[in-house]
């Protein structure tokens, strides 16, 4: 009995000592690990994009145009471009003046025919037929948009494919689809020249084109595809455009809407081509891209103005020279 009592007393003393230790915080157990904190947003690396200078590249290409024009002229085949304007759209007047001046500055003959907005469709088609048969004219450009009573598709199809330097005729659009274009539409052609001049790799790259117009979006996608890029076309009905652009190495934006592409939609280091031409709240020219912020994420970017715009007119000159060279070869 004495042994049992002693054992019980010893157990009680040990329990009391244990209780006192816990009360005095002598025994410290490790605190449970805190769950990792998940940030509300993932920080994106920033950089200052390299500007793709359309003005400087245009000067280089136009110098080549002038050399080729001089060679043709010396052989009695001065390249000739006919520009037709119907109506008094102020923006169209500016574009036409710039095109005519570019021709004059680089050794091309330019015919500028301006008609009132009341000109009939039949009268315009008859004039185009005259230009088609004029051997001095190698390229025909009808400035769009046309007045509402004139069918622009019918007018474009009336231009001889071999003089369709805009590349809009259905025959040229079909040839572009097969990879053997007679003429490439000027704006997408200019963008491809930018990629080439700045050493921007396209083969195997993910490219997103925002916009599906016949003038820019669709031909741009085809040219990128022919350069072995993996191409996605987004448009006004696309759900969550950012889901596509965030994985894109190349983004070409041609919507005519300011801030179509913002910095949070861009993959760090991507090449961003802004085809848009808009006005901001202060009336200054701007594009479709939030340039100020996107340039801190992109690797290359085109400014507005001074990016794609000058290249469009330059490639019109290039197409006209090519048309004249083909005509001279047949003479």
Considering the chains and any ligands shown, give keywords for the structure.
Rossmann fold, 11 helices, disordered N terminus, THF_DH/CycHdrlase, Aminoacid_DH-like_N_sf, oxidoreductase
Strand content: 5-15%
Helix proportion = 40-55%
Report on the biggest sheet: 6 strands, parallel
The total of beta strands comes to 11
Strand order within the widest beta sheet: 1-11-8-7-5-6
> Spans with pLDDT under 50 lasting ≥5 residues?
1-7, 18-42
Average predicted local confidence, pLDDT: 90
**So what's the overall shape?**
globular
Head-to-tail CA distance between termini = 133 Å
Summarize the structure.
NADP(+) binds at residues 211-213. The protein is of the alpha/beta class and 331 residues long.
List the SSEs and their pairings.
Elements (H helix, E strand, L loop, with lengths): L1 H22 L26 E2 L2 H21 L5 E7 L3 H16 L3 E7 L5 H13 L5 E4 L9 H7 L11 H8 L8 H12 L8 E5 L6 H10 L3 E5 L7 H4 L4 E4 L17 E4 L3 E2 L5 E2 L4 H4 L5 E2 L6 H23 L1
Parallel strand pairs: 1-11, 2-3, 2-4, 5-6, 5-7, 7-8, 8-11
Antiparallel strand pairs: 9-10
Helix pairs in contact: 2-11, 3-11, 7-8, 7-11
Report on this structure.
By secondary structure, the protein is an alpha/beta fold. Among the domains are: 77-162, Rossmann fold (3-Layer(aba) Sandwich), CATH 3.40.50.10860; 186-312, Rossmann fold (3-Layer(aba) Sandwich), CATH 3.40.50. The protein is 42% helix and 13% strand. It is built from 11 helices and 11 strands. A 6-stranded parallel β-sheet has the order 1-11-8-7-5-6, with helices on one face. Helix 8 (217-226) links the parallel strand 5 (206-210) and strand 6 (230-234).
């Amino acid at each position: 009995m004495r042994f049992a009592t002693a054992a019980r007393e010893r157990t009680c003393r040990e329990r009391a000592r244990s209780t006192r230790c816990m009360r005095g915080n002598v025994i410290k157990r490790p605190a449970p690990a805190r769950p990792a904190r998940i940030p509300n947003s993932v920080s994106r690396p920033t950089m200052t994009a390299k500007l793709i200078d359309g003005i400087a590249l245009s000067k280089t290409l136009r110098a080549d145009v002038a050399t080729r024009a001089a060679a043709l002229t010396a052989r009695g085949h001065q390249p000739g471009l006919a520009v037709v304007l119907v109506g008094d759209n102020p923006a169209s007047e500016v574009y036409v003046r710039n095109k005519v001046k570019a021709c004059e500055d680089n050794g091309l003959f330019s015919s500028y025919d301006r008609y009132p907005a009341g000109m009939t469709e039949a009268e315009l088609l008859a004039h185009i037929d005259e230009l088609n048969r004029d051997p001095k004219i190698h390229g025909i450009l009808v400035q769009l948009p046309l007045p509402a009573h004139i069918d622009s598709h019918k007018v474009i199809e009336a231009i001889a494919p071999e003089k369709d330097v805009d590349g809009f005729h259905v025959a040229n659009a079909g040839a572009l689809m097969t990879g053997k274009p007679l003429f490439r539409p000027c704006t997408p052609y200019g963008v491809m020249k930018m990629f080439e001049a700045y050493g921007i790799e396209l083969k195997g790259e993910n490219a997103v084109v925002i916009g599906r117009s016949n003038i820019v979006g669709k031909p741009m996608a085809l040219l990128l595809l022919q350069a072995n890029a993996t191409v996605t076309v987004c448009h006004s009905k696309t759900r969550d455009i950012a889901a596509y652009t965030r994985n894109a190495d190349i983004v070409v934006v041609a919507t005519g809407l300011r801030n179509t592409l913002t910095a949070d939609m861009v993959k760090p280091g991507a090449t961003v081509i802004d085809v848009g031409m808009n006005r901001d709240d202060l009336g200054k020219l701007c594009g479709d891209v939030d340039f100020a912020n996107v340039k801190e994420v992109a690797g290359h970017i085109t400014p507005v103005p001074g990016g794609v715009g000058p290249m469009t007119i330059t490639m019109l000159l290039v197409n006209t020279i090519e048309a004249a060279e083909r005509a001279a070869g047949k003479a």
